[in-house]
Amino acid sequence: MSSTSRCRVRLWFGPHQISDYIGDQAAAARYEAAMRRRFPGLEITTDPLPVTARPADYSPADLHR
């Protein structure tokens, strides 16, 4: 995933994050679509990540909605 844009997809149950996925744009879009089908009532957020970011840089404890 060096030059490909990446996205972070998170699934929320109220204020609680219950899923966190980071992948290239196409994979993140597929994951988001699958989560929307499976959990239609829950909030899903999708955020772009810088190309140089590492998944470890974006732990749930460090980021807030």
UniProtKB/TrEMBL annotation:
Domain of life: Bacteria
Protein name: Uncharacterized protein
